[in-house]
Design a protein that fits this description.
Elements: H1 13-19, E1 29-31, E2 50-54, H2 55-62, H3 69-72, H4 77-88, E3 92-95, E4 99-102, E5 105-109, E6 118-124, E7 127-133, H5 139-144, H6 154-167, E8 174-176, H7 182-185
Parallel strand pairs: 1-2, 2-3, 7-8
Antiparallel strand pairs: 4-5, 5-6, 6-7
The structure holds zinc ion (2 copies).
C-alpha cells in the first residue's frame, strides 16, 4: 500500500512488535481508530485478535459516501473488504460512542476527520493519556485549532479537540497520530529504539 500511495514503509508493525518481544499471534485485541489506508493494513498479522471499531466507521466505509471520489480517496477497497470478512468470521466488536475495552482503556468516538474515527484513552502511571490517532494529525492542529484538509465534518474536528483535552489528564498527554515530534518528546521504550518506539506513559518533554 505504501508503494501504491508513494509512501515509503520504513518500519513495519511486525518489526516493531518483534523489537519489543511481542508475538503478534498472541495479541487478542486490536483497536482500529478508523479505516483509512494508513490505519488498517496488516490484515493477517493478528490471527487471534478481535478488532474494535465504531459502527459509524463501518457504515461510512461501506455505504453511499463511498460513491464519491472525494470521500473514498483515503480508503482502499481491500482494507474495507478485509474488515467485512472479519465481521463475518465473528472477529469484530462494534462500538457506538464510548466503550471500555479492558479496565483502564476506553475508546471515544470523535468523528471529524472520518465519520467514525475513535480515539483511545489509556490510564497510565502519570494519569490519562489519549491516543488521538487522526483526531489531531500534528500538535499544531490541536494547539492552534487548525484543520487537516482531509475532513468529513469540520464541527466534529474542533469539538473533538476540546474532547481530547478533556479526556487527557493534561493537554500534553494528547498524542497526535502523525507528528514526528512524538518520537523526540517521549523517551525510547528501550535503548536502541530511539526515533522508532517510545513510551507514551512517560512525561513528555515540552516543545
Ligand atoms: Zn485518517
Ligand atoms: Zn492517518
Amino acid at each position: 500500500m505504501g508503494k501504491k500511495r508513494q509512501r515509503e514503509m520504513i518500519k513495519p508493525v511486525r518489526d516493531g512488535l518483534a523489537a519489543l518481544g511481542i508475538a503478534p499471534e498472541k495479541i487478542n485485541i486490536v483497536i482500529v481508530s478508523h479505516l483509512h489506508y494508513d490505519h488498517c493494513g496488516n490484515y493477517e498479522l493478528f490471527p487471534q485478535a478481535h478488532y474494535h471499531l465504531q459502527d459509524r466507521e463501518m457504515a461510512y466505509a461501506t455505504g453511499r459516501c463511498m460513491c464519491h471520489q472525494a470521500l473514498r480517496a483515503p480508503f482502499e477497497v481491500e482494507d474495507v473488504v478485509a474488515m467485512v470478512r472479519k465481521v463475518f468470521s465473528g472477529r469484530v466488536a462494534f462500538h457506538d460512542g464510548e466503550a471500555e475495552i479492558v479496565p483502564g482503556v476506553t475508546v471515544h468516538r470523535i468523528g471529524g476527520h472520518s465519520k467514525g474515527l475513535q480515539s483511545v484513552r489509556v490510564k497510565t502511571r502519570l494519569g490519562y493519556v489519549v491516543l488521538a490517532a487522526d483526531a489531531t494529525h500534528l500538535y499544531a492542529h490541536i494547539d492552534g485549532g487548525r484543520i487537516f484538509p482531509l475532513t468529513y465534518n469540520l464541527e466534529e474536528v474542533v469539538e473533538g479537540y476540546a474532547t481530547l483535552k478533556k479526556l487527557a489528564s493534561a493537554p500534553r498527554h494528547v498524542v497526535p497520530g502523525h507528528d514526528p515530534a512524538v518520537l523526540t518528546r517521549y523517551p525510547a521504550a528501550k535503548p536502541g529504539l530511539e526515533g522508532w518506539i517510545v513510551r507514551l506513559d512517560a512525561e513528555p518533554k515540552q516543545a
